[in-house]
Automatic annotation (TrEMBL):
The keyword Membrane applies. Keywords: Membrane, Transmembrane, Transmembrane helix. It comes from the Bacteria. It comes from Thalassoglobus polymorphus. This is Uncharacterized protein. The chain crosses the membrane at residues 26-45, 65-87, 160-180.
Length: 798
């Protein structure tokens, strides 16, 4: 090339070099202008796209999109620079191309310039060389006069330069006027930051949760997740940052997930004060994704509501240590499962309240109307730290009286896997008194009063409280005094001084009767005396009174007391339980009052009763005779073939049967009364063998035959009459068979009445003797009084 250039005239070489420089300068200026214009255009396009996207979504452009834009911009600008500047600027320009370009622009060169360039280096004949030389001189002369600046069309360069200048100027002005916008663009597209809009937002909102109970403000974790108890109401709280402008309204958008289906929705949050908004979802059972919008704020990643089961008590059991006096030691190894919400325990029972839960726990809070027992762990800088175990006392107005620490750690009260707890208590009637005597600390077991309604609140590792507390009512079974159910038998209110008073009955106690005795008073003596029973209880829950001689009664003998006629005796049986905590408790049965009389007076009283019984029996005999007369009348009618209506016969049978049964009931009562008379005679020591034989064989035994056999036979015969009437046949035969049964009944009654009358004659004699004796004693007393009176006046006259 240098060789060729050396053969071309200097004037032409100079022009071509200058032309080549001008071309390269044009290319450089045009490339720079295009580069600037394209770069500025890319800035404005991407800037406006970012602004438009934020305007509609309030979010930053996706990072992937911005990375693509960055790659496209860098690639486009590099490609543009290489293709429009580098490749064109450093392109090798041939002299022939430069000459050709000039020839096209300036036709007056008449191909002399291109001919000079093409043939100068070729070996030719002298003639040709001379001609080329001549052409070169002419070309040099012409080219030196040409206006080379007109070779270029500057209009496209001016246009692109103008566009580049305008775009660059707007960018420069915008960069000065809104440097924050340019900086945001740099953060978005060059540095590809995620939150590049944050410094430029006017609103800044934070979503929180008002957790129950107590509307505790809970924040989402670092993953924007909040665990919510299943079925509980979800109350959301949006707070505006103090350094930001509070929006006028806030909208919450959500997606609810139910199985494979989803539900989308939005709601306007309610404004509470300045910069605070709330919204509630009722009974949330599905997971949620949440976005909040207010002003120019919206969260990029959704808040997540994850539904979990709340902590709850699945089962409650009690391990009890019963008081020894209850006799329930054999049951202490058997846990008491609480069915329902109530359990009853004997007073002074120590028990360990064991609860099994559905998930691991962090803390347990047990409350009643009078106290609160709390233990567990708390979070400190993300680590669990045991919190003090406390026992808080409250008054009836729920005001805190005092709080003391409990000598127990959470490790000892929570199970190893924390899915359960065990709390020692003792149910005591003296619990409140023990509370008043508390110092700064209290030891387990915790005393609680009877009928304590406990509510158990749980907190799990997700800081979720149980929405509803587990309830347990612990009733204290108060050890009541023993029940003494007694009655006297075989004696009345009048007794002899040799009497043996039988008392029958039963002693009972919830946990066993420890001891029992007779308590009695004589006359007006206020001091009560005691005598042990013949057979003593030994811890039985039910004890029947008995002694060695008589298995059905316990006897109180008056003979050792040596009572006198006219004195009174008050008697009762006492029983005591074995309660050594709140007892022992003592109770007594019915209080019996007696008056001591002579044997003769008691016999007279018994005879009066016997006379009344005989009169009653005579009435029964009379009514039985009436039944026999009615039977005879019906027999006469049958013998004379008198027609009697069936209704009249039926009424006759029914009245007779009713009368017969009434008489049988009264006869049984008389038999029982005579047995009672016999027992009083025996128990008062006024019986003899003859007396007992006469009353046993003459009255009681015949009455037994009468009531158990003869009345039954007669009743059956009348029943056969009724049956024959119902069947419509056989009444005559049934009537005839009834007559012998009624006759046998009357004959037995007559024999009994005869014996009663004989006894009456003897008793009358006894009463007569008693009256004579009483009269003799009266006269003797009057004589003695007269003698004293006469002696008194005789002494006075002297």
């Amino acid at each position: 090339m240098k060789e060729i250039m050396s053969q071309i005239p200097n004037e032409i070489q100079s022009v071509l070099k200058q032309f080549r420089r001008w071309i390269r300068r044009y290319i450089l200026m045009e490339g720079v202008a295009v580069f600037v214009a394209v770069a500025a255009t890319m800035f404005w396009v991407t800037f406006l796209v970012d602004v438009a996207y934020f305007w509609f979504s309030r979010l930053e452009l996706p990072t992937s999109f911005r990375l693509i834009c960055l790659i496209v911009m860098v690639g486009g600008l590099v490609g543009l620079g290489v293709s429009w500047v580098v490749f064109r600027l450093f392109k090798h320009f041939q002299l022939k191309d430069l000459a050709l370009a000039l020839e096209r622009r300036f036709p007056q060169l008449r191909d002399q310039l291109i001919t000079t360039v093409e043939f100068e280096h070729e070996a030719t004949s002298p003639l040709t060389s001379q001609m080329v030389e001549q052409t070169s001189r002419e070309a040099a002369e012409k080219i030196s006069k040409l206006p080379l600046e007109e070779t270029f069309d500057r209009t496209p360069l001016k246009r692109i330069a103008l566009i580049a200048t305008v775009l660059f100027s707007t960018l420069a002005v915008f960069g000065v006027a809104n440097a924050a916008g340019v900086q945001r663009w740099v953060h978005a597209y060059i540095l590809t930051k995620d939150n590049y809009w944050d410094p430029y937002r006017q609103q800044a909102l934070a979503l929180k949760v008002l957790s129950q109970p107590g509307e505790r403000v809970r924040e989402f974790d670092e993953n924007r997740t909040y665990k919510h108890p299943r079925g509980a109401d979800l109350q959301l709280l949006v707070e505006s940052d103090d350094a930001a402008i509070a929006p006028e309204d806030v909208t919450i958008q959500y997606i609810s997930f139910e199985g494979n289906a989803t539900e989308r929705g939005r709601a306007n949050m309610n404004r509470f004060g300045d910069g605070e908004f709330r919204h509630s979802f009722s009974r949330v059972v599905n997971d949620y994704r949440l976005w909040i919008r207010g002003g120019d704020f919206v969260n990029r990643t959704p808040y997540r509501i994850q539904i979990v089961d709340p902590p709850q008590v699945d089962a409650i059991t009690l391990m009890c240590d019963y008081p020894s006096y209850t006799g329930m030691d054999v049951m202490e190894d058997k846990p008491v499962s609480v069915v329902g919400t109530q359990v009853s325990l004997p007073m002074e029972t120590e028990f360990e309240l064991q609860g099994r839960c559905n998930k691991p726990l962090r803390a347990v809070d047990l409350r009643s109307s009078r106290f609160q027992f709390s233990f567990g762990y708390r979070l400190v800088d993300g680590d669990e730290v045991p919190k003090p175990t406390t026992f808080t006392l409250r008054n009836e107005e729920n005001q805190i009286l005092r709080t003391v620490e409990v000598d127990a750690s959470p490790e000892s009260l929570l199970s190893e896997d924390r899915s359960g707890f065990q709390i020692p208590f003792v149910i005591s009637s003296k619990a409140e008194q023990q509370w008043e005597e508390l110092g700064d600390r209290i030891e387990l077991p915790i005393p609680i009063p009877p009928d304590s309604a406990l509510k158990i609140f749980l907190e799990d590792n997700d800081e979720i409280y149980s929405p509803e507390p587990a309830s347990l009512l612990v009733n204290g079974i108060v050890d009541e005094p023993p029940v003494v159910d007694t009655k006297r038998t075989g004696v009345g209110s009048l007794i002899t001084r040799n009497a043996s008073i039988p008392v029958e009955g039963q002693l009972s106690d919830d946990y066993g009767v420890a001891s029992a005795w007779f308590g009695f008073k004589v006359g007006s003596n206020m001091e009560e005396q005691t005598l042990p029973l013949n057979q003593l209880p030994s811890g039985q829950k039910e004890f029947t009174l008995n002694d060695a001689a008589d298995k059905d009664v316990e006897r109180f003998n008056l003979r050792p007391l040596k009572l006198q006629e006219g004195e009174t005796l008050t008697l009762a049986i006492y029983a005591q339980d074995a309660d050594d905590f709140n007892g022992p408790h003592v109770a007594h049965g019915e209080i019996f009052s007696f008056k001591v009389v002579t044997d003769e007076e008691l016999q007279a009283r018994l005879f009066d009763r016997e006379v009344n019984l005989r009169l009653r029996f005579e009435q029964i005999r009379s009514e039985a005779g009436d039944l026999r007369d009615l039977l005879a009348e019906q027999q006469t009618n049958l013998a004379e073939n008198v027609q009697v209506e069936e209704s009249i016969l039926s009424a006759f049978v029914e009245r007779s049967l009713h009368q017969l049964r009434k008489n049988q009931t009264e006869s049984r009562s008389i038999e029982v009364s005579f047995q009672s008379l016999r027992e009083e005679m025996v128990n008062n020591g006024i019986d003899t063998k003859d007396k007992l034989d006469r009353i046993d064989n003459g009255v009681i035994a015949p009455l037994g035959v009468l009531n158990e056999t003869l009345f039954v036979e007669a009743d059956q015969r009348y029943a056969l009459q009724r049956l024959s009437l119902q069947r419509g046949a056989g009444f005559d035969e049934a009537l005839r068979e009834t007559v012998p049964a009624v006759d046998a009944l009357i004959e037995q009654m007559d024999r009994i009445l005869e014996e009663m009358q004989d006894r009456g004659t003897m008793n009358d004699l006894i009463q007569t003797i008693q009256r004579l004796r009483d009269e003799q004693l009266r006269l003797k007393k009057l004589t003695e009084e007269k003698r004293i009176e006469e002696n008194f006046f005789f002494d006075f006259e002297e």
